Amino acid sequence: MKIRTTVNLTEAHKARIVSRNEPFPQRICTFEISPEKAEIISRLKGVYKLESTLDGVIINATEDKYSNDSLQVEETYGYTPDWKVAQEKIKLMDILAEAYAAGTVSEGGNIDFALDIMAVAAARREIILENNLRIEADRARNEEAERPAKEARAKADAEAKTERERIEAEEKARIDAENRAKNKAIEADKKAWIEQNGSERLKKGYAMGYNCQKIYEIERAQSVLGIDYIRAPDAEEKDRSCPSLEALQEVERLKSVITKEAVVVWLRHGLSDEEEGCEAVKADPGTFSKHYFYKVGF
What number is the average pLDDT over the span 6-32? Predict the structure, then answer.
């Protein structure tokens, strides 16, 4: 049986042939093939074309009519090839080109070996495919076996998350309620002090709905600390070394009238950026104010 096929020589193949002082083969060559191999490859209808000649049947492999989708081959031609020959990366023409370059085949010779190479490649591909299918099947079985445990974990996680959110919401509600009660008590204390002790300006402004927090803090702090204490939220201070006797005596006096902080400090720029540094007594008048008050001039 004869087979006609293309020999796909590269420049590297040609160089090896030239080195042996042999002529290049024709691009399309005819070779011998055993009846057994011919029977196998002749069943690849649509892959290789069969031609009747005076010399008998010739398998024309110069045109590859094979689709990369083996299912399409089966649907189109109604059979599954014994060898998925054209599915392999190693094509018949490439194998023959390598054999020509190696000097192991010439035109008219038997090329059963080439089909054997293709069969080995096909078998190797089938093994890899089977292994991949088995791995995928094992993975699917494992996922199915693990699904109840995963679902249980997911349910437990969701329940735990719901419980955490409930606890966090309750804690937030508790804190919000405490803050509202605290603010309500602070506002009630503020209102009572202003009505009883505030200046006319403070009383009237507060009653008319104006924000008089600064005036309120100053008046109430001075009523506790003394008229000389100034609200200075932007004062830049540092520790005071070797404080004066007068400042120390002022701290002692404050500790008898307030429970909050009272300490001698040094103001880098006095009570404003334009003044020189000076000694001061720093006092926290109480919870009604968020600012410290300072007395200077010792």
Answer: 83
pLDDT > 90? residue 169: yes
Structure tokens at 55: 């010399």
Look at residues 168, 24, 46, 32 and name the one whose alpha carbon lies nearest to residue 97.
Answer: 24
pLDDT one-digit tens code per residue, 190-220: 999 999 999 999 999 999 999 999 999 999 9
For the beta sheet containing 230-231, the strands, ordered from the edge strand earlier in sequence to the opposite edge, are 230-231, 293-296, 278-283, 262-271, 237-239
Identify the domain containing residue 27 by its residue range. Answer: 2-130
More confident residue, 132 or 47: 132
Q: Provide the 10 A C-beta neighbour count for residue 218.
A: 19
Residue 26 lies in a domain: yes
Average pLDDT over the chain, rounded to whole? 81
Considering the domain boundaries, does residue 228 fall inside one?
Answer: yes
| Domain membership flag for residue 179 | no
Task: Give kind and range of the element (H or E) at residue 17.
Answer: helix 11-19
Which residue bears the tokens 């392999």? 88
Q: Cα Rg for the chain, rounded, in angstroms?
A: 50
Residue 139 inside a domain? The answer is no
Give residue-wise pLDDT tens across range 33-78. Answer: 887 777 666 555 444 454 544 444 455 555 444 334 444 434 443 4
Best CA proximity match to 3, nearest among 42, 56, 49, 59: 59
Residue recorded with tokens 């989708």:
69
User: How far is Cα 202 from Cα 195, in angstroms, rounded to an integer?
Assistant: 9
**Order of strands across the sheet that contains 49-53:** 28-32, 2-6, 56-60, 49-53
Angle between helices 200-207 and 213-225 (to 10 degrees): 140
What single-letter DSSP state applies at residue 265? E
Query: What mean pLDDT comes out for the span 173-179?
Result: 95
DSSP secondary structure letters along 140-186 = HHHHHHHHHHHHHHHHHHHHHHHHHHHHHHHHHHHHHHHHHHHHHHH
